[in-house]
Amino acid sequence: MKKFSKVLSFILALCLCAALLSAVVIAEDDSPTGEKGELYGTTVIIYTGNIRGNIDILPQITTLRNMYEAKDADVILVDVGNYLQGTVYSAYDSGRTVIELMDKAGYDVVAIGSREFDFGTGTVGVETHGIIFDDDSLGYLLEAASFYAVAANITAGDDALYAFGANAVVTTASGREVGFFGLTDPDTVNQVLESNLDGLTFQDPAYVAAYQVAALADSDLIIGLSNAGAPLFVRGAVILDVYSGAGLTVGVVIIDNEINQVMTHSLINLDGVEYDEEMQEAVDYVKEMVHEEFTAWARSEVTLEGAFAASRSGETNTGNLWTNALKWFALEGGIVDFFDEDDIDAGNDRIMVAPENVVAIWNGGNLRDFLNTGDVTMRDLQRVLPFPNRVAVMYLTGAQLLEMLEAATQGLPFTDATFASAAAFPHVAGIEFTVDITIPFDAGEAYGNHWYRANSIRRVTIDSINGNDFDPAATYAIITSNAIFNGMDSNYISLERCEDYSTITSAFVVDVVWMYIMQELGGVIDGRYAAPHGGITIICE
User: Fold this and answer.
1) Is 386 helix (H, G, I), strand (E, B) or coil?
2) Where exactly are the structural domains of the chain?
3) In b/e form, how buried is each residue of 103-129, taking b as 16+ CB within 10 angstroms?
4) DSSP label at 46?
5) Considering only CA atoms, which of 476, 383, 469, 460 is closest in space to residue 426?
6) In this structure, how many other beta carbons lie within 10 angstroms of the beta carbon of residue 540?
């Protein structure tokens, strides 16, 4: 790839060096005294971490760079990772605008962090002759920028080629060659949707760092940009590490060029740093454009689980949010306003059971992504549920509800072999149930391609319904999707529902979840959703 071609990089570096050196000479000639600036003979590394889409700081970062350049330092602006996802301005176009603004701010090198994979843009394709980025992939977006993007411990394909550029060399105005390599948090695999990392392997940062020092041995200075979160002491390199949970971090490292040692390393408080006017104009333009599309957005103070394996193997806080929203919609959110006129004319103008008999069920296969901390837009909800499911109400007896749960948990224990059948795993609101997966599922007649009817009920027990005793003879209103209503996944029992009042409404599920967040939660997904609520017990020993 052109960005990481050593020959082309060397040519570009020479051009950049000549241009910057020329600028420095002119500045000295124009100086009233002809004296060099106070930081002449130093290399200043300005680094940021965990920007998380916060484009408002970029005018101040630009000012920092200009300030140090005015003191005749060799200035390099870098980011250690996690610059995407976190605000509406990054959600707007999967981070493309954030990358463009960072490019305008003058970044030279960025490492790739976990949050760079949040938008489903992590996919890369690898061929034996080099790296091939799919259109609109993360690599494709970064390739369009003029800065280097490095990740030395991410490989792809059977040949273990670097998925992105492993390292880059920046030549400063004074002619010094500074080598950079990137280290990405290996725990990214537990923080990001599996399909977003398809084909990628995360190597041990410590081993990779030592190898990169050797690979960059000809450089005058070697810097590791890390979000791996582990303290690394690598001989021959300065490691700048900011882990994901550290929050926004801005730091400055000043290096004496003559002795090649760090003089100072300090964190910067941006309070009081002026805003570069030209950069501020660019940021304001983007904000105005985004605000025209998104007139409202919510915020999450917690991370809601989105891994396929988690959604299909047990209770998650995302499942809690989804089913709580459905139940709220039935009891308080105005579900009847979305009933068909024919239903209302026929007397189906309300939920036909008492509130204590209203529950919600959602299948794990229809929870498709994480909701991360930061701004949350409707577009984020549509990543979790990319299908136009509508809210449905169906009436089952307690015995039917129990059989529904028995069949829906047949994919447990979750394994690679049960991935498809486990898509039916039931996330619930208003139901507390236990499933004993040490007892084999009693499979009856095949249902669809991946499921079987339950020959008997022997693994699942319903412990309570909305805090009350479970009654097999009672009638319960199940608030769910039109897909489950129509028997999707293992839900054959849905086709045996009471037809008199069961109905599919005109309300789309993502709209209902958004209504719940904005109206019931006040626009903030807070600590109440920090962890699963504990309504589902799985006995595995």
Assistant:
1) coil
2) 2-293, 298-539
3) ebbbbbbbbbbbbbbbbbbbbbebeee
4) E
5) 460
6) 10
**What is the length of the chain?**
541
Do 483 and 367 touch, CB atoms closer than 8 A?
Answer: no
Per-residue buried b or exposed e for 296-310, using 16+ beta carbons within 10 Å of the residue's own CB: ebbbbebbbbbbbbb
Q: Are 224 and 208 in contact (CB under 8 A)?
A: no
Model confidence over 83-139: pLDDT tens digits? 999 999 998 888 899 999 999 999 999 999 999 999 876 555 444 334 555 556 788
CA separation for the pair 24, 177 (Å, rounded): 17
As a whole number of angstroms, the distance between CA 423 and CA 413 comes to: 12
Residues of the chain with pLDDT under 50: 1-32, 125-130
What amino acid is encoded at 393 in this protein?
V
Dist CA 342 CA 430 (whole Å) = 29
Cα separation, 301 vs 525, in Å, equals 6
Q: Which three-class secondary structure state does DSSP give residue 18? A: helix
Q: pLDDT, tens digit, for every residue of 256-293?
A: 999 999 999 999 999 999 999 999 999 999 999 999 98
Alpha-carbon distance 509 to 55, whole Å? 31
User: Could you tell me the two tokens for 416?
Assistant: 């690679």
Each residue's pLDDT tens digit, 317-339: 999 999 999 999 999 999 999 99
Q: Cβ contacts of residue 45 below 8 Å, gap of 6+?
A: 76, 78, 223, 238, 240, 252, 253, 255
- Tell me the CATH class for 298-539: alpha beta
The C-alpha atoms of residue 369 and residue 305 are separated, in whole angstroms, by 8
Fold (CATH) for 2-293: Purple Acid Phosphatase; chain A, domain 2 (3.60.21)
